[in-house]
Amino acid sequence: MEGKYTKSGYEILHDPRLNKGTGFTDKERDMYGLHGLLPCNVENIEQQIVRVNEQVDHFKESINKYVYLIQLLDNNQTLFFRTILDNPVKYFPLIYTPTVGEACQKFGHIFRRPRGLYISIKDKENIREILGNWNIKDVRFTVVTDGGRILGLGDLGISGMGIPIGKLALYTACAGIDPDYTLPIVLDTGTNNETLLNDPLYPGLKIRRVKGKEYDEFIEEFILSITDVFPKICIQWEDFAGPDAVMILDKYREKICTFNDDIQGTAAVAAAGLISACRLTGKPITEQKFLFLGAGSAGTGIAGLIIKILQEEGLSYEQALSRIWMFNSGGLLVNSRTDLEDYKKIFTHDHEPVADFADAVRQLRPTAIIGVSTIGGAFTKEIIEIMSGINEFPLIFPCSNPTSHSECTAEEAYKWSNGKAIFASGSPFEPVELNGKIFIPGQGNNVFIFPAMGLAVFATEVKRVTDEMFICAAKALAGLVSEEMLSSGLIYPPISDIRNVSVNVAIKIAEYIFDSGLSGIKRPENIEMFIKNKVYYPAYN
To answer: Strand 437-439 and strand 432-434: pairing?
Structure first.
């Protein structure tokens, strides 16, 4: 500690990495010149958490709680992470979905203190210099967005910075990645959001989105620069518009350590839920038929990973593909359509056009419907009743975020299916009572996947992140769902156990990495202890 504290007492209190607030001991106050800068009483971190909880509870609106918590992060990061870790069920919805969506929408109006790096397309040719301005020189993880498609809210430009900040907070809270190794970044390439362009408090470039060759060159320079400045970095792409997300991942996944959480993380957590759900239905995943509402990067990412899982279970590629059907705003994805991007065309089938989703359900008779459309209420009473009529246990997965964009609520799914539905959503829902029974809705939150992936990548120094690593993560997550959990309708572990879940999933991923010869370091004798020893715990030293 003494080596870190080279600043004056006043400077220490204003450095969130060093600040303990009232937690500084008398000896530390003597050593660093803190007397008089703090109340005289020395408090432990548990007492401070009581105060934080009381202050958070004072606010009625979630957005105000979010603002308070981000200010806490900017003031005392150890206390922030310990508070989150002590009660993840309470705090995850406040620091991430659903509250982070509103925070992004209001970013320019609630902005107080800059966090992370803001790199605009006008900075091209100077990106290395900008990255060098960051005061930590061994960054291992960055979450990057250009704000092109924030959750289900669309183009929010630089206001999407709330996503990288929130995601990296979850890296630390869930999987114990030391926050000093993380760096949130937003790439400002403009916005097509008229409201933001006309908002005097919008802090980003007030230009239309730059696309095409200029955009591609900007992304390439950013990647070359950041991998040069931080050689061990892993880049997580987040909330890019579908075509951009797919292009970036396809172009760079074999060249650098990178992944797209919207595509691969969403796919893994959805796959884990489906694997667990199959245990409840008694029907193996190879006998399921999946119909997606939405065919963007998230939907095609889930579909692609399911195909690989089905192949691992013994189906040919053609057989696996026959189990996947997709529907978007133009109707069912069929061979005769001429309006589809290349990454969607592989999911088309030889079938007559179908323009209505309910009709598609009737004709195709899927066992599972997966919503990635961001259209709130799209899974109507009619659709769920059709699903319940053709399936003993229909799988209803409205995966869109935030809550207002969920394709249906848990109550609707259980009520309209008369309790038959196996339900999992992207947003949190409260338990539902129906016919004297309590149904506990599963939340297929990416938080079960990407922090664990991060911990495994950090520990093994793997050079690439592969789809097979995500399949490993999905199976590991599903394997943590006990029979007792299944009996209560849970197809995911409880969020309250997220630290234990993340570490155990990371162990399985690390084992796969070492077994496959992908690691950048020598295999340890005990992988479990090796991973656990890498975990950061927020405490005052």
So the answer is: antiparallel
Domains, the chain, with CATH or none = 9-95 (1.20.1370.30), 99-256 (3.40.50.10380), 264-447 (3.40.50.720)
pLDDT at 3 over 60: no
Contact 463, 520 (CB under 8 A): yes
167 noted as active-site residue: yes
What's the confidence (pLDDT) of residue 2? 45
Let me know if 96 is a catalytic residue: yes
Give the list of residues 6+ apart from residue 105 with CB closer than 8 angstroms, or none. 153, 156, 159
Listed in sequence order, the residues at least 6 apart from 253 whose beta carbon sits closer than 8 Å to its beta carbon are 259, 464, 465
pLDDT, residue 189, reads 98
Instruction: Report the run of H or E that residue 385 belongs to, with start and end.
Output: helix 381-390
Of residues 167, 344, 508, 534, which has the active-site annotation?
167
> Measured between alpha carbons, how far is 518 from 141 in angstroms, rounded to an integer?
18
Q: In the prediction, which pLDDT does 1 show?
A: 43
Interval 239-278: pLDDT, tens = 999 899 999 999 999 999 999 999 999 999 999 999 999 9
For residues 304-315, average pLDDT = 96
Q: Above 80 in pLDDT, residue 6?
A: no
- The answer to whether 424 and 491 are in contact (CB under 8 A) is yes
Q: Which of 88, 101, 493, 90 is nearest to 269 (CA)?
A: 493
**Measured between alpha carbons, how far is 498 from 496 in angstroms, rounded to an integer?**
6
Q: Identify the active-site residue in 32, 96, 492, 512.
A: 96
Partners of 442 in the β-ladder: 424
376: left (phi over 0), alpha (psi -120 to 50) or beta: beta
The total number of residues written for the chain in this structure: 541
